[in-house]
Amino acid sequence: MAQVKNRLTPFFENITFDRDDNELILNFGPQHPSAHGQLRLMLHLQQEQIVKAHPDIGYLHRGMEKMAENMIYNEFMPTTDRMDYIASSSNNYGFALAVEKLIGLEVPRRAKVIRMLLLEINRLMSHLFWLATTALDIGAMTVFLFAFREREYLMDIIEGYCGARLTHAAIRIGGVPLDLQDGFLHQLRVFLNKLPQNIKDYEDLLDSNRIWLMRMEEVGVISTEMALSWGCTGPMLRASGVAWDIRKEEPYELYDEVEFDVPFSDKGDNFARYRIYMEEMRQSAKILYQCIEMYEKCEKDGQTDLMAHAPKYISAPKIDIMTQNYSLMQHFVLVTQGMRPPVGEVYVPTESPKGELGFYINSQGGPYPYRLKLRAPSFWHTGILTDLLPGHYIPDVVSIIGTTNIVFGEVDR
Amino acid sequence: MRAYKPKDNVQAKAYYTDRFYVAPQVPKTSVDEDEVFAADLEAIKAKFEVKDAYIQVEQMVIYINAHDIYGVLELMRDELAYTQLSEMSAIDWLAKDDTFEIFYQMLSMTKRKRIRVKYFIKNGEAVDSVEKLFRSADWSEREMFDMFGIEANNHPFMKRILMPYDWEGYPLLKTYPLEGDEFAAWYEVDKIYGKEARDIIGPELRDTARVDRYDSERFARLGHEVPKGTKITGDEPAVTQSYQEEGGVFLIKKLDKESSVVIDDPQR
Amino acid sequence: MAQHKVNYTQDGGLPIALTSVDKIVNWGRSNSLWALTYGLACCGIEMMASGASRFDFDRYGTIFRASPRQADVMIVAGTLTKKHAEFIKRLYDQMTEPRWVISMGSCANTGGMFNTYATVQGCDRIIPVDLYLPGCAPRPETLQYGVMLLQKKIRANKAGNAQKAKRLM
């Protein structure tokens, strides 16, 4: 069949056949099933061994920072969903917290508890997804099916709360829009009671699996210096011997009230990262149990506020908007023109499932941010591949990309 | 008369601003209020000129000279335990005074403190690369070059990172419109089919609210779908959609909606 | 070897079935729609979810293939950026005919919420599209329904006639 004519040159220019040094240049991606998105790697090979790696990103660059400069603060919230789309609420939260710090808002306690519930559910979802895809890349199809099954339960709970499976937009600047629905806590408890057994199932399948161990152990070793120098955060850094968790060290929300451990390892290899993800799931479950108790205590104490009270920045509750003239006017101004935070700048880091998710906002007192920089952890976790891959073999590329847990919505923004 | 639109900043503008509105400031406090920051500032001041320093939202901000940046970050990394460069980028102030503001977000894990180091450069000047100190700056500086066109001296691979290598224009400049310029609008068509295909493929439809009611190629009224290309009159008969044809499909059982069960609680 | 008792007189149990070439070819084509794993962004995650345990795409004969040469349908799941546009064309050209394209999600349909310099405003500027799925991101059920509609579309074709290649220009 005749193909549609186009101007694209044949794509063999990346394979050089007539070189003296036996070096083969292999193009990996940008659409490779185990690249976790649109990662393009140019690998220089000596036989099977990689001598030079050149990651090429930007295939999912949609210009979010530019969009932020053209959107009022509340408008930008759904866009943050599409950054780390495995755990959307953590992005929503990072942005909401940054704006709240900028305008100096204090969020009601009940909203904080709901936010923590959402954040930890997102962490569980993200880690389950990570486990599923990495296991699939390495060939453990069963784990993929198991982990996706558990993830669907969490998605149902989240969907009941905000109506979306993937792109939640469940957190607003100044609080949360809704109270938990009936049955949220029950469903969550049922899930959490089952979770330890599920995690044990995955571990039974993987921990002593010879294939898994050979692809994971002592592959992709990141030293502490390298991790620090490349700006690694989250599980990547903790696997390399630095016990740094922003939830613990610079607590936000109510993380200083809950009890949890920060797992870390000094091995720095793929297996260490895998163990950390598994352990973090258990810790998230522990936090979620405590959050459920905190929520029930809020309910008992009659704390019903979900949004902060700040008429200059945040719309009044709906009942006020419908009954009070002034609230309606404020709401109208805030929706049509947007809030105008004070002049200043702020950088707020939060611990997203992937690492340190930071929002730098420079406000000039207008309804649009003058500059918004998204500090996404995956960006640097992709960059480290430049230094990490040389010396490894081709099959290791897949397992290393898997354990770095990169999401391209976040890398390219 | 056409409304005047400033050319040096084409980003969205507030359409109403109170003339007498004075925007409040995010409070800045003196560095002396925090012992750790004060000690750090002393150590930096001993070797380099610090133009301004204050604490804003729990983090110290210092302004230095552009040529000192490598030295300051080296001092901070080796002596003050600021071991990580979390983030660096630029802010476009070209419209105001033809400068870029560059910021480096530093983190000390032992002190649990964050410092933002900043300086200004003129338009067209290059920054000193700190890639030798922090490998993370390798990609940050490339991103900054990609987005603002600010080059870094001594950088090993100063090429675009997010946009294609053959891209024209620097997207995060305030003079660059959100929807892109003409080069951006035709980029994929020019590259794949060539310029002569522009007429056939047509311009991009950027108006998100645009719906052609009589466009039967893309849109048909829900429940009143018509074949492609049909002229729509408005009184189409209702069609019930089912994914199987009426006569049944060869070898495939038809779904019986009566006998299907909906599970209430997926976790049971 | 085990002896299976088959009741040939029951419906569907007959060893011989008479049909037209059209029907049997279309039956084969529509019930083994192998899809190219073309997860670009968030929709790709929902595409994976529809292939995973709960939604189980294999029931429809839809198995994800990593190579365009083995795929019949390209599910463009996610935002297509200008940097990537060239590759969608390359992959589409590598697919064998007959081939179909499902554009999944607002971004692939029209650019969606990303009305920016870096996003292609609809993947139908590059390749011809058979089916547009609305949603941001569409649920796995939507994708499954879309595939069923595509099956219906395939069954409506005359398989005996040489298919005209779909052309954008």
From TrEMBL, chain A:
It is a peripheral membrane protein. Gene3D superfamilies: Cytochrome-c3 Hydrogenase, chain B. It comes from the Bacteria. Its EC number is 7.1.1.-. GO terms for cellular component: plasma membrane. Keywords: Cell membrane, Membrane, NAD, Oxidoreductase, Quinone, Translocase, Transmembrane, Transmembrane helix, Transport, Ubiquinone. It holds the Pfam family Complex1_49kDa. One of its GO terms (molecular function) is quinone binding. The keyword Cell membrane applies. Residues 137-413 form the NADH-quinone oxidoreductase subunit D domain. It catalyses: a quinone + NADH + 5 H(+)(in) = a quinol + NAD(+) + 4 H(+)(out). The keyword Membrane applies. The chain crosses the membrane at residues 128-148. It is found in: Cell membrane. NDH-1 is composed of 14 different subunits. Subunits NuoB, C, D, E, F, and G constitute the peripheral sector of the complex. Belongs to the complex I 49 kDa subunit family. NDH-1 shuttles electrons from NADH, via FMN and iron-sulfur (Fe-S) centers, to quinones in the respiratory chain. The immediate electron acceptor for the enzyme in this species is believed to be ubiquinone. Couples the redox reaction to proton translocation (for every two electrons transferred, four hydrogen ions are translocated across the cytoplasmic membrane), and thus conserves the redox energy in a proton gradient. This is NADH-quinone oxidoreductase subunit D. It comes from Sulfurimonas sediminis.
TrEMBL record, chain C:
Residues 42-148 form the NADH:ubiquinone oxidoreductase-like 20kDa subunit domain. InterPro entries: NADH_UbQ_OxRdtase-like_20kDa, NADH_UQ_OxRdtase_20Kd_su. It holds the Pfam family Oxidored_q6. Signal peptide: none annotated. GO terms for molecular function: 4 iron, 4 sulfur cluster binding; iron ion binding; NADH dehydrogenase (quinone) (non-electrogenic) activity; NADH dehydrogenase (ubiquinone) activity; quinone binding. Keywords: 4Fe-4S, Cell inner membrane, Cell membrane, Iron, Iron-sulfur, Membrane, Metal-binding, NAD, Quinone, Translocase, Transport, Ubiquinone. Its cofactor is [4Fe-4S] cluster. One of its GO terms (cellular component) is plasma membrane. Coiled coil: none annotated. Its EC number is 7.1.1.-. The keyword Iron-sulfur applies. [4Fe-4S] cluster binds at C42, C43, C107, C136. Binds 1 [4Fe-4S] cluster. The keyword Iron applies. It comes from the Bacteria. HAMAP family: NDH1_NuoB (MF_01356). Belongs to the complex I 20 kDa subunit family. This is NADH-quinone oxidoreductase subunit B. It comes from Sulfurimonas sediminis.
